[in-house]
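seq:
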Amino acid sequence: MTERTAPLRVVVADDQAIVRDGLVLLLNGLPDIEIVGAAADGEQALALVAEHRPDAILLDLHMPVLDGIATTRRLAAEHPAVAIVVLTTYVDDTSVRDALQAGARSYLTKDADRIDIARALHAAAGGLTVLDPQVHATLLAPAAGLRPAPAPEPGPDALTARELEILALIARGLTNQEIAAALYLSSHTVKTHVNRIFAKTGSRDRAAAIGYAHRRNIG
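struct:
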């Protein structure tokens, strides 16, 4: 992925004015983000995207006039170059799968801070996918109608959500560089997390950490 020289141009779509205005204020405060439009519903979002041709859109799922899933489908069909990042309170199986199948590239919850949101927007614009840890858990759960798998057993010193996410990727055989690309983190940040995972799990090396993960059904 080539390094950008201009700010990422973004449209924000959320029906709640206080949330929408807050996102615009927070993200416009970052030097590498430029908010070019803010929409209160799906139809407005489509019109703003057609007018401004942004790099990405930050989209809520539950909006009036045209909801987020329908908006995502139309965006993917009419503006395939625009990266779609969902930002919502909903992490149920149906919402997650419908959004991703409709064409969303990344899926975050509204617990995310502005740095996480900015990273997800840049990653999506660069062709990568970023999923909230809760969304990972939803996607890894059994098919709808069955009881979800139990949550992974935490480490002896309580691994954080990010550490569990990285440990799961280690267990799948990803390198630090691959994890950094998947989560849009720096290699240094991933290495720091990996070292903390080793310390918390009592693992001397990657193989021991993988064994720890498998024993606790992580990944």
